[in-house]
Amino acid sequence: MRRLPLRLLRSAAISTTSSFRGPALPCGGWRARSAPQPVVRPAAPADLAQLPQRRGYSQFASGFTPLKPKPLGSILDIERAKGLSPEHLVAAWDDYHLGRGHIGTSMNAKLYRLLEQRSATCRHFVIPLWKGSGYTTMFMQVQMPYMIFTGLEDYKARGTQASPYYTVTHYTEFAETKDTVLVRGDVVFTSKLTDLEAKTLLEVAHSFYLNDVRYKLVERFNKETHEFEFKDVLQVLDMPAM
Q1: Which end of the chain is more exposed for a tag (fewer CB within 10 A), N or C?
Q2: What is the mean pLDDT of the chain?
Q3: What is the rounded distance in angstroms from the CA atom of residue 238 to the CA atom of residue 183?
Q4: Are 77 and 11 in contact (CB under 8 A)?
Q5: Which residues pair with 128 in a beta bridge?
Q6: Which of 114, 111, 240 is nearest to 180 (CA)?
Q7: How far is CA 56 from CA 51, 80, 163, in A?
Q8: In the chain, helix, strand, coil percent, each to 5?
């Protein structure tokens, strides 16, 4: 398969506010400031009952209301990309993000519209993520085309001042013409998440909104909080209760 020339894709940079940026690098990217190593503690189901009231969720992360992601045009040459087949565009997008500290993936327009529809009324969820011999629980906020993630313990401790560990942007520029939505994830703090963990987290997050059975848990978390059981999330992910 012919690959899109790399010159079509521009230098990548982390999509965060200036408070997360370090000295400029020659390639035009940014080096994120190092953050303290987290103390990873698995969140027990009972911990979810102590979540802060939801009135503050609309201002979940300091500096991210609203989000200001990198525009797609700063990552790739949109005019040249218009002449590519969807397959070539997706292949180049995926290849470009390998090993760059960013996550690149894609979805078709129908799935994106379903994700957009479902997240409109269910903006929050909690996802356990394996780390070493246990798991840490991530809290996510969705306001399409964006997703942001932070540790649940960090959010419970800092509330709306909690910093995002990871941000995701869905680019819809080619949704109508190529039935393709490009997706990019940026790890803000590499001390909190590895690229592989970020990739897994995004895949799992998408699955909870796009899979009918899993989405029922998202609905319960947002609309029937008292009926929500964290062990049900662990069960569908084949993870043991800890």
Answers
A1: N
A2: 78
A3: 26
A4: no
A5: 137
A6: 111
A7: 11, 42, 14
A8: 40, 20, 35
Q: Are 124 and 232 in contact (CB under 8 A)?
A: no
Per-residue pLDDT tens over the stretch 161-211:
889 999 999 999 999 999 999 999 999 999 999 999 999 999 999 999 999
Any idea what DSSP says for residue 34? P
Cα–Cα distance for residue pair 239/242, rounded to 1 Å: 9
Q: Is the pLDDT of residue 45 over 70?
A: no
Range of 9-23, 48-62, 95-109, 223-237 with top mean pLDDT: 223-237
Q: What is the 3-state secondary structure (H, E, C) of 105-170?
A: EEECHHHHHHHHHHHCCCCEEEEEEEECCEEEEEEEEEECCEEEEEEHHHHHHHHHHCCCCEEEEE
Backbone angles phi, psi at 184, to 5 degrees: -130, 130
Residue 198, H or E segment: helix 195-210
The string of pLDDT tens digits covering residues 11-42 is: 433 233 323 222 222 222 322 333 333 333 33
> Which pair of tokens denotes residue 169?
């942007």
Render the burial of 139-159: b for 16+ CB within 10 Å, e for the rest: bbbbbbbbbbbbbbbbbbeee
- Angle, helices 195-210/109-119, rounded to nearest 10 degrees: 80
- Tell me the pairing of strands 181-187 and 166-171: antiparallel
**C-alpha–C-alpha distance, residues 20 and 35, integer Å:** 10
The whole-number pLDDT of residue 10 equals 52
